[in-house]
Amino acid sequence: MSAAASHKTILQTTNLCKSFGGVLATDHVNLDVASGEVHALIGPNGAGKTTLISQLSGLLKPDTGSIIFKGKNVTGKPAHRFASAGLARSFQITSLFADMTLLQNVALAVQAHTGHSFHFWRNATTDKRLLEPAYHYLQTVGLAKHADSIASAVSHGERRQLEVAMALATNPSLLLLDEPMAGMGADESNLMIEILQKLSGEKTILLIEHDMDAVFTLANRISVLVYGRIIATGNKEQIQSDPAVAAAYLGDTSDA
Amino acid sequence: MNPAVNPKRLIHRASFWINALLLLLLAIVPPVLFITGQPYWLDIFTRLVILALAATALNLILGYGGLVSFGHAAYLGLGAYAVGIPTYHALYGGWEAIASYNGFLHVTIAVSVSALFALLTGAISLRTRGVNFIMITMAFSQMIFYAFVALENYGGDDGLTIDVRSEFPLISLDNPLTLYAISFISLLLTLAIVYKITRSRFGLALQGARSNEERMRSLGVDCYRYQLVAFVISGALCGYAGFLLGNLDTFISPEMMDWTRSGELMFMVILGGASFLCGPIFGAAAFILLEQLLRGFTIHWHLPFGILLILSVLFFRGGLSGVIDKVRSKGSNS
Amino acid sequence: MEASLLFIQLLNGLQLGILLFLLSAGLTLTFGIMDFVNLAHGSLYMLGAFICASLTQLTGSFVIAALLALPLTALCGLLIELVVIRQLYARNHLDHVLATFGLILCLDTLAEIIWGPAGIAIALPELLNGQLEIFPGVVVPIFRLLVIAIGLLAAAGLYLVVNHTRLGMLIRAGASNRTMVSTLGVDIKTLFSGVFAMGAALAGLAGLLVAPIAEASIGMGNEIIITTFVVIVIGGIGSMKGAFIAALLIGLIDTLGRSYLDDLFKLMMSNDAAETAAPAISAMLIYLMMALILAVRPQGLFPASSR
């Protein structure tokens, strides 16, 4: 775990616990994400990944333990405070402004990042300070040509790309990507891996993903979550050779 | 940013001209009717324009904010009582020294009391969503209704006659044509305000919250503040409409704020197409003219009216609003 | 004297609370299980009252009329469900509200066409019309006691149905998980119709119990429906227990507020001011209480866990 200690830690959880009806869905989780790295969180279905990242993005309150983000204790704060502190997340189930264009979707994200929206008079729909960055982020994820399409009308893969663009638009210190490849075909997955690879140099990313190829391609470090506990953290080789991981996880994903 | 495809432009242009034509008709027809000796119709059109103003105000939160407020008649009532109560106390004499004309006082009271009521009730009701929000806004407006029923001083159930209309320098609201002109200009200003707001950053945040509130929160936006401010703006504008309505009727009673009035106002917004800038005007026009038409046939005009309402929800609304939504989304153009 | 007056006011409050519960039970059931907002619930209350009034005139007996009016109101509910409501389940709440608002206009006008614009009073039989001295000096109309007793019986019956029958199990399951119920092999349409008719019967019961005290009148439903909403919002939408407690609370507070607030105010201000302010404040009392409760608990006192 001290492998990445040379980097500055941006997110750290200490003994995070969350239980539902007596079942510990998150069991004393100690997780740290270093600035600049791509950290993957993997685990079999039902391992508690969704519960964990819901706490990491403020949608769920942990029972005990703490979440330190950029040196500040954000435990128990509402979701919008996590976001304004610089933590952006994409959703496993795509969550967009379905009735707006892709450009408007990203523009809203840009707007959210640039302070409060109590501006009643200036026309925001032609405001270059919103549209130019929005267009830039659409380009980053390869969606510029669809800028004027309605979000509900584009393909599943494109909506996932849009999710990433919106997360980027808030200029986050940490990008939390919840299964960005979920439900994608091989081509779409490869495109997404490419996009994320481009970002990996400049952004700190916490990646929750099922697709092992993607994880091993992108991640600097990997944490394995099983039954709410982190059973191992390390680089690709360490994880692949870890017997506990093999037993608990890699062993039964041969069919995945 | 990207060059728009032709059909979009076409729809935009078409809807622009339809709206312009509607406003032009409203500018010309009623005065002509009045001059040609149909004062009754000028009265009807003044009411139409005032209710269109109120519906436009409601549209800001219902159409653009997605907040189904079922209590907007209360603001109409508050605005009208803001004319009636000071007049009843003959406050205009005493205030002359400060304001010279009591009209400014009336407008100030109408707008600020409505805004305050919207702030207090909005602060509570906006913490809930969906059905709860509908029922709570309904309950608060009914509270105002019962409060005025119980206020015997101001006529209680029987209402209050406004002896003198609000006074302004240079103009007299006693002239029906002037009152219509003021109401119509007010409607235009309200349209401009709502138009500007919906295209501003504030408006975008509001529409984002309508579209996907949880997503807004995960972007770091606290939607509550924006919705509350929109609620207050909407209430204040509606209060102003109430001020006009009080001057039109020169009579106010709690009946004006009954929750079924709020229902009618909502119906106007939906009928005309929510989140369509001029939709509420179409809705108000359809509502008032239909009412006039059905009244001509039967005293039980509420029955066919109710049936039409149900049918429009069952068959027309899904279709119409669907069509509008499609036109809107195809036509929307950043 | 003071104590006996208080006792009678408490009974009146209890009676109002019971009536509110009968109304809110049906409404909260339809909401809980079908996610449907029915503004026209008050019109069923009015129908119950008018049908019972007509039948009393026809049969000469309030009791027979009441027994007939109950299933007839349920039938009206069933008809309304089949013709209008059923088409709306898949729609959003805004559509529910608009369509049932139209329904109110129709039903109120229909009632006016059938029964005329004036209200109809119901004469009670000798036996029910009397007074009862329950304590020395405390005389109560027998019918009021009967209203309370019937209301409590209905509440108990409802509790048994919801908690100890298969129908109740489906209702509870349906409230928390609609798709699960349909996988249980239950015809969801029939279930919905049944629940709606049951709610109509409860509203009708409240209406026919009120009619001999107040009289059946056009628009009587539109007044009480908002108070019913206050009950549901305070109790927590979809919660039967919440509806019961909130209904009694509202009934008591409203009644006691109207009778004692002016005395209370007279302690604090001049008589004139008190006589002006007290009626207005007491009319607003339950709404202010709603505001207070919601400020602390936005989801009401007993939020249904599924929502």
Characterization of this structure:
The complex is a heterotrimer of chains A (256), B (334) and C (307). Chain A is α/β, with parallel strands linked by helices. In chain A, 34% of the residues lie in helices and 25% in strands. Chain A contains nine helices and ten strands. Chain A has helices spanning 49-56, 79-84, 102-113, 128-140, 156-169, 186-200, 212-218, 236-241, 243-248; strands at 9-20, 23-34, 38-42, 64-69, 72-73, 87-90, 174-178, 204-208, 221-226, 229-234. In chain A, the strands form two sheets. Chain A has a six-stranded mixed sheet, with helices on both faces. Chain A has a four-stranded antiparallel sheet with strand order 2-1-4-5, with helices on one face. In chain A, a hairpin with a 2-residue loop joins strand 1 (9-20) and strand 2 (23-34). The two termini of chain A are 28 Å apart. The relative contact order of chain A is 0.17. Residues 1-6 of chain A have low confidence and may be disordered. With 334 residues, chain B is mostly helical. Chain B contains 13 helices and two strands, in the order H-H-H-H-H-H-E-H-H-H-H-E-H-H-H. In chain B, strands 1-2 form a two-stranded antiparallel sheet. With 307 residues, chain C is an all-alpha fold. Chain C has one domain (20-125, 139-296): Orthogonal Bundle (ABC transporter involved in vitamin B12 uptake, BtuC), CATH 1.10.3470. Chain C has twelve helices and two strands, in the order αααααββααααααα. Chain C has a two-stranded antiparallel sheet with strand order 1-2. In chain C, a hairpin with a 2-residue loop joins strand 1 (131-135) and strand 2 (138-141). In chain C, helix 1 (2-34) crosses helix 7 (166-176) and helix 2 (41-59) crosses helix 10 (220-235). The longest helix of chain C is centred in the first third of the chain and has 33 residues, at 2-34. The N and C termini of chain C lie far apart (48 Å). The relative contact order of chain C is 0.19. Chains B and C meet through helix 5, helix 6, helix 11 and helix 13 of B and helix 4, helix 10 and helix 12 of C.
